[in-house]
Amino acid sequence: MIRLFYIDLFLGKRFFVAWGISAFLFLLAYFFPWFGIIPQLFALTSLFILVADIVLLYATTKVGVKTSRNAPTRLSNSDVNDIWITSENHYPFVVRIGIIDEIPYQFQKRDIWFEQTIGAKERRSFSYPLRPVKRGLYAFGKLRTFVQSPIGFIQRRFNEDVAIDIPVYPSFLQMRKYEVLAISNRLTDYGLKKIRRLGHSMEFEQIKTYVPGDDYRTLNWKASARQGSLMVNSYIDERSQHIYCIIDKSRAMKMPFHGLSLLDYAINASLVLSNIALKKEDKTGLITFSEQIGTVLSADRRPTQLNYIMEALYKEKTRYLESNLEALYVTVRRTLKQRSLVILFTNFESISALNRQLPYLKKIAKYHLLVVIFFENIELKSLSQKKAQDVEGIYLKTIAEKFIYEKKLIVRELARHGIQSVLTSPELLTINTINKYLEIKARQGI
Fold it and tell me: Are 261 and 318 a contacting pair, CB within 8 Å?
């Protein structure tokens, strides 16, 4: 018990100030004897206050201050997640507390310190944000609370063993945001294009009475003759179309932007797109690959499909070899039994890198509607926009512009072979991917 008393007791700033003044008074008394017993009286008073502070913090209550952490069961990758801390003061007086939360090592933060003043028998809560940039298991440690009485000579530490492991999943907060926008038809608020229909679906819904504004090409003359008034056929969007997100896990997707790798950007976008496609009553599937095939999840629209996709994406990691599109083509031919929308998330840094993989992309595009989504290098883009100050700056700017131009050549080369593509910055990946999906749906491209 005595050992625990010493372990959890820490001296405060006021203690050192008081005993520093006491030492200074003793020093003055050595040169000025007329100080008398003033230094002794000040030292005894400081000692008495120290004992009183210890009694206040250790003898007035057994519980002291109780602190707890309220964290979600899972964290959303690349999003700001709020962690709540609640402190309850059981002392009969006002206390000042400092809290250290042992957050996971992945955040590389060692200065998590929160100060609060809590009244007698009062309870107070506050939150702080955490933004993970990697998927995986995050281990939260203990909560350490340092309590000061109004005297402030010492601090008493309370250790709460609230260690917990919390998984970080792909961005489900972003998924919910776009889900709400899709349900309320407010996707255009975030820059998603509204595509004009070039025709109508061939999936029949009903025959209804003609009203001004209906497409006269849908007039049903036989029904009109029977009813004695104009009747039109009503069509709905085609459903149960197969949408596959194919994610490249090779070293080309390891490049980080704003702390998040290209693979994680692709995973977040795939989750959002799969959710919206399921809301549109399409079937969604998933394939991951690098030098070998990873996850293969057949397209379906059952209620549990999104959970299967999220669990599969949670476990994916970047590999360090070149991607094998030949193996991907074999898997696509074996798995995809009907014409599907295939959205391939990958990255090409040069036209030569594209030419190595182009034969396999053309084979996939022969049987399916292939959309290749790859990334702009935003660091090179910002470098090309800077004004060159010297010869070295001109050289760097020229090289950056050359690589940017090669990205545009890749888009043209893909279009020349009938393959649709999207060149996007990592931050706009989700919006541009949904844009492309809605555009293809509106134009009935599948």
Answer: yes
Q: CA 178: distance to chain centroid?
A: 14
Which among 188, 213, 236 is the end of a domain? 236
For residues 247 and 286, give the distance between their C-alpha atoms in angstroms, rounded to a whole number.
8
231 and 243 fall within a common domain: no
Rounded distance between C-alpha atoms, residue 315 and residue 40, angstroms: 68
pLDDT of 77-90, one tens digit each?
999 999 999 999 99
Same domain for 223 and 364? no
Please check whether residues 387 and 323 belong to one and the same domain: yes
Helix or strand holding residue 418 (H, E): none
Domain check: are 158 and 178 in the same one? no
| pLDDT, position 139 | 95
Round to whole Å and give the CA distance between 213 and 293: 51
**Is there a contact between 346 and 254 (Cβ–Cβ < 8 Å)?**
no
Furthest CA-CA distance within the chain: 124
182 and 112 inside one domain: no
Whether 90 contacts 64, CB under 8 Å: yes
Element (H, E) at 22: helix 13-31
Buried b (16+ CB within 10 A) or exposed e, 69-103: bebeeebbbbbebebebebbbbbeeebbbebbbbb
**Distance, CA of 403 to CA of 377 (rounded, Å):** 9
- Spatial neighbors of 344 by CB under 8 A, at least 6 apart, are 246, 248, 361, 364, 370, 371, 372, 373
Answer yes or no: do 107 and 163 share one domain. Answer: yes
One domain for residues 229 and 102: no
- CATH number at 401 reads 3.40.50.410
Contact 332, 364 (CB under 8 A): yes
Total number of domains in the chain? 3
Domain that holds residue 212: 203-236
Q: Are residues 251 and 375 in the same domain?
A: yes
Nearest to 191 by CA among 445, 444, 439, 435: 435
Q: SS3 for 144?
A: strand
pTM of the model: 0.81
What band does 1 get if pLDDT is binned at 50, 70 and 90?
Answer: very low
